Amino acid sequence: MFGKRIRLFKLAGFAVHIDWSWLIIAVLVTWSLAAGVFPHSVPDLATSTYWAMGVAGMLGLFVSIVLHELSHSLAARRVGMSMRGITLFVFGGVAEMDDEPPSAKAEFVMAIAGPLASVAIAAAFFGLSRGGAAWNWPAAVTGVLGWLGWINGVLVVFNLIPAFPLDGGRVLRAALWHWKGSIRRATRITSSIGAAFGVALIVLGVFAFIAVNPIAGMWYGLLGLFLRGAAQMSYQQLLVRRALEGEPLRRFVNPDPVTVPPDLALREFVEDYVYRHHYKMFPVVEDGELVGCVTTRGLSGSGIPRDEWESRSIRDVMQPCEESNTIDVDADAMDALSRMSRNRTSRTIVTEDGRLAGIVALKDMLRFLSLKIELEGEQDRSQLAPQVQDAAEDMDEPDGERPPHERRETADAARR
Q1: Last residue within a domain, chosen from 125, 160, 195
Q2: pLDDT at 53 (0 to 100)
């Protein structure tokens, strides 16, 4: 969902990030408030005051969204769910979950926490606005407070629309899950509603663009596209989880991966390993012991000039073995997939009692998933199989662990 993002701070144990796309909203909100909303609602103030009000309103909206998502995260933690953090992006914010809720009750508690927090925030801003007017606060201050109360009320109403993945859609999913006894069926229904709502917003956006307000129409259309895509993706992710849960990671491990020694020169590493095998990550092994891993990203980000690659070795750029780049061989396949997704990698080192057990590649898991859906997932095959197959074909890693020339020789032998 996100591109490059910036970590801002930590709140109640959750890392708060901002995606670069949210800067677009920050600028647009500030401009619209300073140039349109506040001059209309609070007339006869200086231009500089309106711009200060615009910045204050934008910052207040930022705080409101963070608190809304924080309430989701705190509720999730209370019901035993693991949360990665909070990220603000162009269409608002999201509390990032590592897994689906364990029960319908947990889903409801987590989903309703956000709107309840926004109701409280709206009431607080409205109360301050009315109190400030009674206490003769400056009109600029009460104007900003009143707008923040109003916009939080709008967020409550919008988020309670029963269209997944909005909060209202999650509340509906919890109810259907409790009633039907199946999170998959509940997700399929609510994601279909969410996709339909997204299409409706797109149609409304086209109409508004042509007949009313082109800028508003553009944003309606973009929001509709996002909601439609998010609804479909949410259901696909659920299907992937259900297909891989319980599958042993050992099934996907290649026990004989290509490894590099720590004293290998960087030039030789690039020429004889990266350009030959086309991988972006390699285990580093010394005297039969796993001592770390080396990645092309780590090399490019090391700052070592190319003319020093002959004299510098893997030791200078390798990373220690840790949770982010290794997983135990007895883990669940879904755990490995979640870890690769979280760390945005396509290969992970597999260990057994601290020793190298092999490599698991995302492409192998996607191929297995495609086959399993084709053979067993009759109801969901049309929903997910094409996307999984396309993802498997589009992966930038080569097949398995064999070098490209060996794969060609195998294919030629098979044809003969």
Answers
A1: 160
A2: 94
